[in-house]
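Input.
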Amino acid sequence: MHETRFGGLLAQVLSLATRGLGLFLFVVAFAAYRRDPRAIAILAGSAALLVLLLILLVS
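Output.
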C-alpha cells in the first residue's frame, strides 16, 4: 500500500476527531447518569458552539 503525506495527515485528523467524539460521548453519559443540570447546560452550550463553528467553517 502506498502511503502519502495527505493520508498520514488525514489519519491524524480522524484520530483526533475520534478521541474528541469519545470524550464528548463520555461526558454525555456521565451528565445523564448524574442528572446534573449544570453539566447538561454546559454540554448543550459547548455542542451549540461546536455546531456554529462547523457551520462557519464550511460555509
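The mean pLDDT is 84.
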